[in-house]
Amino acid sequence: MNAIRAWFRERLPISPDQVLEVLDEPVPNHLKRWWFCLGGTPAYLFVVQIVTGILLAFYYQPSPTTAYESVRFITNDVAYGWYFRSLHKWAATLMIASVVLHQMRVYFTGAYRKPRELNWMIGMCLLLCTLVIGFTGYSLVFEQLSYWGATVAANICDTVPVVGGFAKRMLLAGDTYNSETVPRFFILHAAVLPATMIFLLVIHIGLIRMQGVTEFRFEDEPPRAKQHFPFFPDHLCTELMMGLVLMILLSVLATVLPASMGPRADPLVTPDVIKPEWFFYATFRWLKLFSATTAVISMGLIVFLMFIWPFIDAAFRRFTRFAEASVWIGIAGALAIIGLTVWEAAVTH
Ligand code: HEM
Questions:
Q1: What is the pLDDT at residue 23?
Q2: Which CATH topology does 28-213+230-271 take?
Q3: Residue closest by Cα to atom 10 of ligand 1
Q4: What is the mean pLDDT of residues 7-26?
Q5: Dist. CA 234 → ligand 1 center (Å)
Q6: Which residue CA neighbors atom 9 of ligand 1 most closely?
């Protein structure tokens, strides 16, 4: 044993003490509450997506002639194919939900304020990547809604002034949906976006490690209570336990509500109802409320304001009497998104 240890020590001159020191980040007490360490949940689900996605990629064939049949083969014939496909689909749903909840926690606790403005912006990039990776994933099945959803999305891109036509051609790999479209979605979904997200996550977590998380103190805590606990092993064990609970939840969902398949894509038959996945319901309803160009430009503006929100909030706090405006704006924004989502879910058209 000692000889093996010495062999490694010579080649990897890192001592166990140095490793422990790196792991020994003092974690503030409030992170014992799940709501405050929600960022670990999308991180865990991202790993589940990568593992199950690699397993699916062994059988998935990205072309319009083979995609649908290969997904059917995975679902019906491959050993545990239905299970891993359903895990992938449910983990995507939970990941989007948990990213949104994490962002809400960060927003409503003001944890984006100085010096964390850049990390908020990196977080916004992660949110957009998560939504686009979800969209491209649904487009890979090549069922009716994959095809028509992608066509509608490309037409929406087309309404963006100046760059719209270019964005549409980049998305579809041509002026209309063609044989190169599915391979393009696959490369975006399985390579470009995951690699971008890994890069962004390294910066996101690196910044958290350098800045530490925002410190909060609660009224119910005794005044002289210990304010921190060690990352290793305490926080890591909590995160691993959450991972176990999530795995059980995912397995139950995958078994009780397994991923199904709609009818195969048919470019000649427009479905009566075209609806995107639930996480685009609010955007879709917004598009129906205004003309396409107005809706797209206003959405672009909202996303831009979200990006620079830490600076707008700082200006509110410094130059106006409305220091807590962010709370009311946040509540109004959250209610608007929930309202639009429920509205879109409740009506057929
Ligand atoms: C894949 C998506 C994401 C992952 C895996 C992730 C991961 C994490 C983790 C592990 C933390 C440590 C504290 C915690 O757990 O709350 C954190 C904190 C933070 N995240 Fe994220 N995050 C993601 C998306 C976002 C988004 C969408 C935003 C906002 C736009 C954001 C902004 C922040 C900020 C500002 C902090 C520092 C919070 C503080 O100091 O208390 N993150 N993130």
A1: 82
A2: Cytochrome Bc1 Complex; Chain C (1.20.810)
A3: 39
A4: 88
A5: 20
A6: 39
- Token pair 């036509």: residue: 165
The pLDDT, as a whole number, for residue 223 is: 73
- Pocket test of ligand 1: the residue of 112, 204, 215, 217 to mutate, having most ligand atoms within 8 Å of its CB, is 204
Tell me the domain boundaries of the chain: 28-213+230-271
- The string of pLDDT tens digits covering residues 163-176 is 999 999 999 999 99
**pLDDT tens digits, one per residue of 133-186:** 999 999 999 999 999 999 999 999 999 989 999 999 999 999 999 999 999 999
* pLDDT at residue 246 in the model: 98
Print burial letters for 162-201: b (CB count within 10 Å at least 16), e (below 16).
eebeebbeebbbeeebeeebbebbbebbbeebbebbeebb
Residue nearest to atom 40 of ligand 1 (CA): 213
Centre of ligand 1 to C-alpha 270, Å, is 40
Ligand 1 shell residues, CB under 6 Å: 37-40, 42-43, 46, 99, 102-103, 106, 111-112, 116, 119-120, 123-124, 126-127, 130, 201, 204, 208, 213-214
Ligand 1 centroid – CA 322 distance (Å): 26
